[in-house]
């Protein structure tokens, strides 16, 4: 199966280029569920927007593969009398990259365009020469002359703001754009479902392909859905930092490089037997992988599944990513293919009622 065939690439671009800020994920979830419908027996939607496709919905043994659907964004927080807009974060948005970015402000009148303005270098001579962006000094200009005009445009406190950048391919090797974190994960689990369908695999358990909301503000969608599904096993996918690019301290961030395979995390929340099961699947199928360690929690939806329902054996397979939470996040095509293959082979090798007791 070619992971990047015409149809799946079309889905990838459409899915990556839509806006699905945390708490407002419905547009992306609709695209995602339309794509996976042909590969699953049924699908469900919860009250906060988490969507999941199910293969074998009647089976009592439940395996989850999961990604998160939401992207970081900003909230309009204060509009000055002159019509400039100050924002707060919705998720871990980076003030350092804001100046000179183009944005969409999402309103009931549709998307309104704006820009993060920035004082000209000429006007910063003296004390402001090295002015650095911070949460107090970044602001959006929508071309309005007053607060009144901003309000008349449909913009109000609480409107969500996203950057405009779209997906592109660099050197036929790297996908680059915003929200690869973690819509690439959504793409990967959808391809796993497709592969199971196209290879006519009959699974001896129920498989739940879950695209969770609200990860970026504290794993909230996964927390909700873990309690709804009550799975027996969960394999989560997210992105992790490539530590080989300039200014990243690999003594702290670990030893992960794009292009060298999925990253497997060691952490207390990761179940050792499930992790070994994934490593065995990688080795048996010649899938390259890298190792990462997380002190305490993994900071991904893995924690939400692991610490739900009295403890659910959970593990994390990550896509190495450069420049996380910028609009030029980069992921290697081959890593995406290997993550799909590793989730697929790990799922296929699972048996219902597998023993996850340590002794
Ligand atoms: Zn993130």
Structure description:
By secondary structure, this protein is α+β, with helices and mostly antiparallel strands. It has 2 domains: 6-71 and 178-348, Aminopeptidase (3-Layer(aba) Sandwich), CATH 3.40.630; 73-163, Peptidase M42, domain 2 (Elongation Factor Tu (Ef-tu), domain 3, Beta Barrel). The protein contains 9 helices and 17 strands. It has helices at residues 6-17, 26-36, 147-152, 180-198, 220-229, 250-253, 272-284, 301-306, 333-348, and strands spanning 42-45, 51-55, 62-68, 73-79, 84-90, 102-107, 110-116, 140-141, 160-163, 168-170, 174-177, 206-212, 233-241, 263-266, 290-293, 314-321, 329-332. The strands form 3 sheets. An 8-stranded mixed sheet has the order 1-2-12-3-13-16-14-15, with helices on both faces. A 6-stranded antiparallel barrel has the order 4-5-8-7-6-9. Strand 4 and strand 5 (84-90) form a beta hairpin. Helix 1 (6-17) runs antiparallel to helix 2 (26-36) and helix 4 (180-198) packs across helix 9. The structure holds zinc ion.
């Amino acid at each position: 199966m070619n992971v990047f065939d015409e149809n799946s690439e079309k889905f990838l671009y459409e899915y990556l280029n839509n806006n699905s800020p945390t708490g407002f994920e419905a547009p992306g979830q609709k695209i995602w569920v339309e794509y996976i419908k042909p590969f699953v027996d049924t699908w469900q939607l919860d009250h906060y927007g988490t969507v999941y496709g199910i293969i074998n919905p009647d089976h009592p043994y439940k395996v989850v593969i999961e990604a998160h659907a939401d992207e970081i964004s900003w909230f309009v927080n204060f509009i000055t009398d002159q019509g400039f807009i100050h924002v707060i974060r919705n998720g871990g948005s980076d003030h350092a990259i804001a100046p000179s970015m183009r944005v969409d402000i999402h309103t009931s009148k549709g998307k309104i365009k704006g820009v993060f303005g920035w004082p000209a270098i000429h006007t910063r001579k003296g004390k402001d020469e090295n002015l650095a962006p911070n949460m107090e000094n970044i602001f959006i200009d929508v071309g309005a002359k007053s607060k009144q005009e901003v309000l008349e445009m449909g913009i109000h406190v609480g409107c969500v703001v996203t950057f405009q950048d779209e997906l592109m391919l660099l050197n036929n090797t790297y996908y680059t754009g915003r929200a690869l974190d973690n819509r690439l994960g959504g793409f990967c689990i959808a391809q796993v479902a497709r592969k199971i369908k196209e290879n006519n695999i009959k699974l001896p358990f129920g498989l739940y392909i879950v695209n969770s909301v609200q990860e970026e503000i504290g794993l909230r969608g996964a927390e909700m859905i873990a309690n709804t599904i009550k799975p027996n096993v969960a394999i989560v996918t997210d992105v992790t930092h490539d530590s080989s690019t300039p200014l990243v301290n690999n003594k702290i961030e670990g030893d992960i490089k794009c292009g060298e395979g999925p990253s497997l995390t060691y952490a207390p929340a990761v179940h050792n037997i499930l992790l070994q099961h994934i490593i065995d699947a990688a080795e048996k199928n010649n899938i390259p992988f890298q190792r990462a360690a997380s002190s305490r929690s993994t900071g991904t939806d893995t924690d939400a599944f692991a610490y739900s329902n009295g403890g659910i054996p959970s593990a994390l397979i990550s896509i190495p990513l450069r420049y996380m939470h910028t609009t030029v996040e980069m992921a290697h095509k081959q890593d995406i293919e290997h993550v799909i293959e590793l989730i697929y082979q790990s799922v296929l090798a699972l048996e219902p009622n597998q023993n996850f007791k340590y002794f």
